[in-house]
């Protein structure tokens, strides 16, 4: 039996399944996301989900996963999906009865990507004719929740137990307060959200069980202290259009120390690790141990000068950008436009002597962004910097995905799967 992953991207869902000892088949159109999936050893059909037929999966599909593209709905874009929402609801209602009105509705959409959120219903309707799938998991930006509730109402008439709501990835150990609309459905068990493992503040143990841990901070995930300084790196090629990319603000064109040390990587023995049991003896290893040891460089020593500054992550270049200290989770990471670049910014830890200026902002690296999405440090991203950042920003955090999928697979997550090293 197959787990079918629509709009599978670079493998957020797939990597979580790999950790749980299961594989899926991903349908994805983006060339570089497909190359990333191939490098990660994930099964992929490069295709347009809206054009691919459902019949090859009939009688073979145990679970269906879908994360339709969010650009039409995201607050980082023009949000024309909200304007098109009535048309998307109509498409879902029609597809649920076997009527394909997508061509007519698409012509009326302000953003052609809006209607992709209705595509899972085309697959679900066809699969339902043979009593499949057994379970469903879907994820999107919060504004899509009304659409998920429409899906839920339809799936209940087909015999599914369904839950739809908003979850915060930080509540499941992701170092990012990424809120997403989630739909979970099952023919065989009560659909409900997984119990949170983390909270904004540490919760004490009680008679009812262990308390939740404090949200994972960026410093925990990246192996930093509050005053560690990001290492500027040369950005040679990799703009969103594939052409040359200018040096990021705060980088030095000579970059003697950065060249000597290489690009920043986590300290050995620190950071969030999401690793397949296949990669070790049934145990997750901190990056920098075993086979990854040679790929990890030491974090540069902090000087007294650097300890005058604390570092925060600014989510974009806009006036209302979210700014979070490294001892907190990141805000929602999104990329794809110059205004959406995330940068490390410094603030004084005390009144600095003299008029020494604060260090310039330094652009986040792809490896740092991947870690803040709970991907491993050595995840094999493919493409230039712009293409990699786009993949990272659009992916579901694997750690959240694993919590959503484990109950449907009869799996229990343990420290063998996820490790926050000391």
TrEMBL record:
Q: Which GO BP terms apply?
A: DNA restriction-modification system; methylation; negative regulation of gene expression via chromosomal CpG island methylation
**Region entry Disordered, spans:** 188-210, 237-308
Q: Which Gene3D superfamilies match?
A: DNA Methylase, subunit A, domain 2, Vaccinia Virus protein VP39
Pfam families for the chain: DNA_methylase
What's the domain of life for this entry?
A: Bacteria
InterPro entries, sorted: C5-Methyltransferase, C5_MeTfrase, SAM-dependent_MTases_sf
- What Gene Ontology molecular-function terms does this entry list? DNA (cytosine-5-)-methyltransferase activity; DNA binding
Q: EC?
A: 2.1.1.37
Active site at: 70
The residues forming a coiled coil are none
Q: Which UniProt keywords apply?
A: Methyltransferase, Restriction system, S-adenosyl-L-methionine, Transferase
Q: Which family does it belong to?
A: Belongs to the class I-like SAM-binding methyltransferase superfamily. C5-methyltransferase family.
Q: What is this protein called?
A: DNA (cytosine-5-)-methyltransferase
